Amino acid sequence: MVARVQNEVDVAGMREAGRLAASVLDMIGEHVRVGVTTDRLNTLCHEFIEEIGCTAAPLNYSNSPGVPPFPKAICTSVNHVVCHGIPTARKMLKSGDILNIDITVVKDGYHGDTSKMFCAGKPGVLAQRLICTTQECLYRGIQAIRAGAHLGDIGAAIQQHAEASRFSVVREFCGHGIGKKFHDDPQVLHYGSAGSGPVLLEGQTFTIEPMINAGKRHIKLLPDHWTVVTKDHKLSAQWEHTLLVTSDGAEVLTRRGEENF
Ligand code: MF3
Ligand code: CO
Ligand code: CO
After folding, report:
1. What is the pTM of this model?
2. Does residue 240's CB lie within 6 angstroms of at least one atom of ligand 1?
3. Residues 214-256: tens digit of each pLDDT
4. Which residue has a Cα nearest atom 4 of ligand 1?
5. For residues 106 and 55, is the Cβ–Cβ distance under 8 A?
6. Is the beta carbon of 184 within 6 A of some atom in ligand 1?
7. Other C-beta atoms within 10 Å of 28: how many?
8. How does DSSP assign 161-202, residue by residue?
């Protein structure tokens, strides 16, 4: 299945949801410091999300029967946690920890989904390189977007850059179509071959959210049914944007002020 093509009303709704999701990441940055708990970050984000007239899509989200609903408003994935880390009062950030905060807001029925890496204290050299490379992977994926390009061009660009940097691409999770539905078609793989897959059409909206590991690509799901960790317990990083396909490129709906493109 190919992604829905959004009409002008939908595009306006997605722009607003994207802008608001990005504002949550802008707000939380100064609170990410040594000694803060991930549960505190969750509370701050959740309160802010409600203040800006949105709801938090992850809270009570469930996508498959038998999996308990996600219990918090945001995902906080520390160090070797790949994605879907559950905020907890037991997790206090230490100096050198790296952390992904993943925000999905709903505004007037439209979803904005974005994540960013943060550091508590000063990250190590490897952690810093992993974080930078993963952000470059996201940007290369975005640069592959234009009406007429193939979906596989995105994954190819990401995989090429990650592996040239001697990192690995997580295969089990991918970007996704997004709109009135949180996780819609298509699946946007972060690996693959250029020229493969469906052709992108102007007006489609989807996320790109590469998870890149410092060690091997393999992952493990913890017994809480949500937290995904690297099997080798080496570091993992992720960055995510919600994108709109345009005739000559992509509009980054969740762009932050610090990003000048
Ligand atoms: N925001 C995540 C994504 O990028 C999904 C989180 S679902 C949750 O698709 F339930 F874990 F919150
Ligand atoms: Co997403
Ligand atoms: Co997300």
Report:
1. 0.98
2. yes
3. 999 999 999 999 999 999 999 999 999 999 999 999 999 999 9
4. 113
5. yes
6. no
7. 19
8. HHHHTT-EE--S--EEE-SSSSSEEEEE-SS--TT-SPBP-T
**CATH pick for 8-252 out of 1.20.1740.10, 3.30.565.10, 3.90.230.10, 3.40.980.10:** 3.90.230.10
Please choose, from the candidates 166, 142, 172, 163, the residue with its C-alpha nearest in 3D space to the C-alpha of residue 154: 142
Closest ligand, as measured to the CA of 61: 1
258 Cβ contact partners less than 8 Å away, ≥ 6 residues apart: 26
Q: Ligand 1, closest atom to CA 183?
A: 9
What is the C-alpha separation between 260 and 237, in angstroms, rounded?
22
User: Where exactly are the structural domains of the chain?
Assistant: 8-252
Ligand 2 centroid, distance to 171 Cα (angstroms): 14
